[in-house]
Amino acid sequence: MLIAVSTSAQRMFYVGLSAEPGRDAVAAAFAAHAPAARLRWAGIDEDCDGVIFLDVQSNASEFPCLLAATNLAGGDDYELGLAIARDLSVALRCRTVCDGSRHGPGSSPGWCLVWDQGKAFLGDDYGSVFYDDSPELSESERAALGPIRILHPLEI
């Protein structure tokens, strides 16, 4: 599972989606919130100034598509992730999930935001298939995982 990470060398965020994201919808969302960025659907290479590298991965959860973004274009990755997740939930008429660590009641990387057609909900993804599934888990450990727990609506 790809987690939102911010370091001086590499900045990443994710958006999980309940529907497959088309490249046009993704490009439109990024154009609205990072208009100067150049999008690349490929691995990182040496031409990275102002680039956001994108990759769609699979996830065994209720969010089977994971849009992974490596942002070398600058800006606040957390806020950009929120905006992209919100816009894609509306454009694709689906649910999306993104990092919600700034919106939880305490400091924890387990907080997430679930967007349902533009409406935000605080979620807890600890113990979920989305966050915790891994090839290293035993069958009984995997069976104990569930969906992301939705806690309450948020006004964002």
Question: Which labels suit this protein?
Answer:
alpha+beta
DSSP helical segment count: 4
Supply the helix-strand structural class.
Answer: alpha+beta
What would you report as the Rg, rounded to the nearest angstrom?
Answer: 15 Å
Beta content comes to: 25-35%
Helix content: 10-25%
Which series of helices and strands comes N to C?
Answer: EEHEEEHEEEHHE
Overall 3D geometry?
Answer: globular
The tally of strands reads 9
Largest sheet: 9 strands, mixed
Nearest-integer average pLDDT: 90
What is the distance, rounded to the nearest whole angstrom, between the alpha carbons of the first and last residues?
A: 26 Å
Write up this protein.
The chain is an alpha+beta fold and 156 residues long. Helices cover 22% and strands 32% of the residues. Strands 1, 2, 3, 4, 5, 6, 7, 8 and 9 form a nine-stranded mixed beta sheet that branches. It is globular and about 45 Å long.
What's the short version?
The protein is of the alpha+beta class and about 160 residues long. It has helices at about 25-35, 75-90, 130, 140-145; strands at about 5, 10-15, 40, 50-60, 65-70, 95-100, 110-115, 120-125, 150-155.
